Amino acid sequence: MNAYQSLRQTLVSEPRAWLVTGGGGFIGSHLTETLLGMDQKVTVLDNFETGKRENLEDVRREVGGGRAANLRVIEGDIRELGVCEAACAGADYVLHQAALGSVPRSIADPIRSHEANASGFLNMLVAARDAGVRRFVYASSSSVYGDHPGLPKVEDQLGRPLSPYATTKLVDELYARNFFDLYGFGVVGLRYFNVFGPRQDPNGAYAAVIPKWIGSLRAGEACRIHGDGQTSRDFCFIDNTVQANLLAATAVGSGGDGEGVVGEAFNVACEARTTLLEVHARIRGLVAEAAGGEAPPEAVFGPERAGDVRHSLADVGKARGRLGYEPTVGVDEGLARTVAWFLRG
Question: What proportions of the chain, in percent to the nearest 5, are helix, strand and coil?
């Protein structure tokens, strides 16, 4: 039995109270679904600017009526301290996912990104600390590595952030370290590498590449690839990200008191680099198979996007050694499950 399987058994036998900020979003709704499926009490805080109420309705359907009764939803904004304080009351653990994502969005409107990702984050830290939350796990990003050329990315080797979004995530990590050093608060950061899966928004100017391409190919439209398609990413299926969050929230550390875990940041990825051309080819093949073999259009190419890094690949040795994290779903299986979800019905 691995660390995650053991943890799931423990949580089922010893239910706890969780706050998931951004719980109506892609990652947050999967965290909420997993926790409810283990009979945990879950509060979701979301202003539904980018999160969707439909995601939570989907969660309720998936977990069933009895378990869905353990879900409480607060519609509110993390930019308001009082809202954060009310949401944190009674929580054992906070999984902080609320943010305005997207590098291009942050370049277009850096003020809004800062307000949500930095000021809102600080509000949540203060509220969770004052509420006596056991541990505060927050979503950081691989974008904090910026222009550092080394591969794979290791946690103690950062470069210069290349976008306002990346800067806000680095600011979050600095604030989190302050709260650990100054107040002994149990914060843990997770640097997500290109998370994908069911419920990820395929629409809008800032949609992530995988759901956007699935939607385009399903509609018989050509996908646009920025650059030559050789840009590579360490794509991480959502199940791996959920696992990392729950392990980070509960890991006891080397001394049984969170030593080596709290105050730290960890990569969350699969340790596999896949180019955009490879991802497009796999999605195109899966969509064609579902359509009875008729191939969707070939991709079209456009200029590279400002703020994008060329290659990204994670070293997850630190998360593996200290959290017990072990990615269980690779890119191929993850893409197959994601395409199947988007094509259902």
Answer: 45, 15, 40
Note the pLDDT of residue 205.
Answer: 67
Chain centre to alpha carbon of residue 191:
8
Helix (H, G, I), strand (E, B) or coil at 296: coil
The CA R_g of the chain, rounded to the nearest whole Å, is: 19
Domain borders along the chain are: 3-193+237-271+315-328
Question: What topology is assigned to 3-193+237-271+315-328 in CATH?
Answer: Rossmann fold (3.40.50)
Active site residues: 165
* Pick from 67, 63, 78, 19: nearest CA to 43: 19
Per-residue tokens: 142: 């691989």
Q: In the chain, which residues have pLDDT < 50?
A: none
Angle subtended at Cα 97 by Cα 67 and Cα 94, rounded to the nearest 5 degrees:
60
Q: Measure the CA–CA gap between 288 and 294, rounded to whole angstroms.
A: 5
Q: What is the pLDDT of residue 206?
A: 62
Q: What tens digit of pLDDT does each residue of 16-71 get?
A: 999 999 999 999 999 999 999 999 999 999 999 999 999 999 999 999 989 999 99
pLDDT at 293: 73
What value does the mean pLDDT of the chain take?
94
Closest alpha carbon to 264 in 164, 339, 154 = 154
Distance CA 99, CA 204 (A): 17
Six token digits for residue 319 = 């998360």
Task: Report pLDDT for 345.
Answer: 56
**If you write DSSP's letter for every residue of 332-344 in order, what string do you get?**
HHHHHHHHHHHH-
For residue 306, how far is the Cα from the chain centroid? Answer: 22
